[in-house]
Description:
The complex is a heterodimer of chains A (181) and B (202).
Chain A: H1 28-44, E1 51-56, E2 76-81, E3 86-91, E4 103-106, H2 112-126, E5 134-139, H3 145-158, E6 162-165, H4 170-179
Parallel strand pairs in A: 2-5, 5-6
Antiparallel strand pairs in A: 2-3, 3-4
Chain B: H1 16-32, E1 47-48, E2 52-53, E3 59-64, E4 70-74, H2 77-90, H3 98-105, H4 117-121, H5 144-155, E5 160-165, H6 171-183, E6 188-195
Parallel strand pairs in B: 1-6, 3-5, 5-6
Antiparallel strand pairs in B: 3-4
Helix pairs in contact in B: 2-5
Amino acid sequence: MADIEPSGGQEKGGKKRSKKMSTRIDFTPMVDLAFLLITFFMLTTTFAKPQAMEINMPEKEKPGDPDPPQVKASTVMTLLLGKDNKIVYYEGLPEEGANTKTEVTDFGANGIRKALIKKKQEVDAREDKKDKTLVLIKPSDASNYRNLVDSIDEMAITGIKRYAIIELQPVEKDLLKKAGY
Amino acid sequence: MPKVNIKRKSTVLDMTAMVDVSFLLLTFFIMTTQFRSPEPIIVDTPSSISDTKVPDMDIMTISVDKEDKIYFTIDNPKYREALLDNMRTKYPQLQLNATQKKHFVYGSSVGSPINQLPSLLNNPPAEHSKIKQLGIPADSTNNELGNWIVQGRFANPKVRITVKADASAKYPTIKKVIKTLTERDINKFNLITDLEEKPKNL
């Protein structure tokens, strides 16, 4: 306990009695200091460590590499990330050039997510194997980093396993311009 | 009227239990706290549902702030020293005295081109946030970021590469960073994000 036992009260033979000092120690300053330190360390500790999202980029093309496997155009969906946090997307290949039918949407829960889920269900129903959907993410120079992370995140949310981040093609720049983004 | 004697209670509390608990907490917080040198830039990362944690050690961070300036850092003073020596072999014009070296080794992110690094390192790391830095060049003609990355990997081969960019950083800058990485055959890296709750009812 807080008390310290008074040691050796009786001196043998000695008649002199030293005055007994109180052995109670005032703990208040120590407690004050301890709490100050606790507060300091509590405030400086960071428990919430940042999260990391892993991305794998395709390997550099080297001469002599085998041709990449062909993909069915009907399984492909292309997202063009435009300005003002908008996405212009189309399915398949841009066969009709600048006249390819595109849709404009945003990153909200009712935006691109619905379109991706719909596409995934369609492809899963049509193909004999699951997870054949391929999404191409093509950020334009007007988009920002949040758009890129959000689109990769949508892949994780909708469970699309195959996606790639690639450069815009000239025809797609025209598509974006035509859609106004 | 008879005098009622109220028995006085002692006002001395036994604080032992409280002191025990408070010291226990103190010990816990002292043990768990890790001090980091302050970052010179504020980066507001976007959020994602990914819940993988960033490892504690062996990380290299390429930061992009909202003004599209690129910063570079690697943890652990031991590797920072090796990295600086490597960079000085690569860029012989980079002359640093002992103080400047110390400021680099015990500092954090730097975002200055090689020719401006000495003047930045005249200041202690705590002052770096007040100094306007130009960002590390990552263009195809002058890609200093690429050299930082390669020399950083030489200094610590186990290093994990993370990209920490501000949500409003423009894509062309991100593209430069990603291109710098993939051109050096680094195809696997991490993007640092905040945690966001996974949406339900899909």
